[in-house]
Amino acid sequence: MRALVISGGGSKGAFAGGVSQYLIEEEKQKYDFFLGTSTGSLLVSHLALNKIKEIKSAFTRVNQKSIFDNCPYLIVKKEGEERIKINHFNVLKNFIRGRKTFGESNNLRKLLSKEFPESNFTSLKETSKEIIVCVSNLTANTVEYKRLKDCCYEEFLDWIWISCNFVPFMTLVVKNGCEYADGGLGCIIPIEEAIRRGATHVDAILLDTQFQHTNRLHARNVFDALGSIFGFISDRIEIQNMHIGKLIAEDYNAILRVFYTPKVLTTNSLIFNKIKMEEWWQMGWEHAKKLSATP
Prior knowledge:
This protein is α/β, with parallel strands linked by helices.
């Protein structure tokens, strides 16, 4: 039983798309499980259907307007580097409306309905493949894994959307009486879950370098500071996930192959730049090819 597992990572998900394309089209890997967290959850359903051309087109053209109906930040370019600063008007507008977050990502939920039609959902239900997305239940203080075959169409789209909602910048969703947010707040890469569900071979795509050497710039505003804080927390969770994943693989005699990014792609994965994401997709394909050719 083979599993493809994709971590969270915002715009860096384009790299995971390129790696996955190589594994599916060139290595001819046949996966029984597809598990994703956050940006990974956006990819897994299309990959399971082998609709790579469609997900590449959708993923590499997404931008802030595609995601936010109320974007809490502005992108500024200074000294050749893109950074974010607070959109004070939009943040204030959200608070006046009584919202619990700086911004709202309802446009992403609408985009999911467009890019993942019910016919795709029905096709996946009729296969033996398992598609699972990770979400964080803030009310119950637990990580939950939502299986496509346990859901109706609209419900599964909600879970994908929730898995991607990077609170406090995106929507905090109340569902089934609980508050839910980005799966990456609890589990960056669900290798352990894949193995516990029966996977004996796992290809895991981690949207970070193998050895962390990121030197973040000093924060210039509260959003920079929050980004650095959440980045630090995510790095700690990621290290823990990988450590546990490797231990579980050894305990269950599972074969684990991990694809890291060959370099730091970005220090702010909330910036969706079409040109860069197209480059990262190609980089992912070439990186997988290189590793595949390595004895």
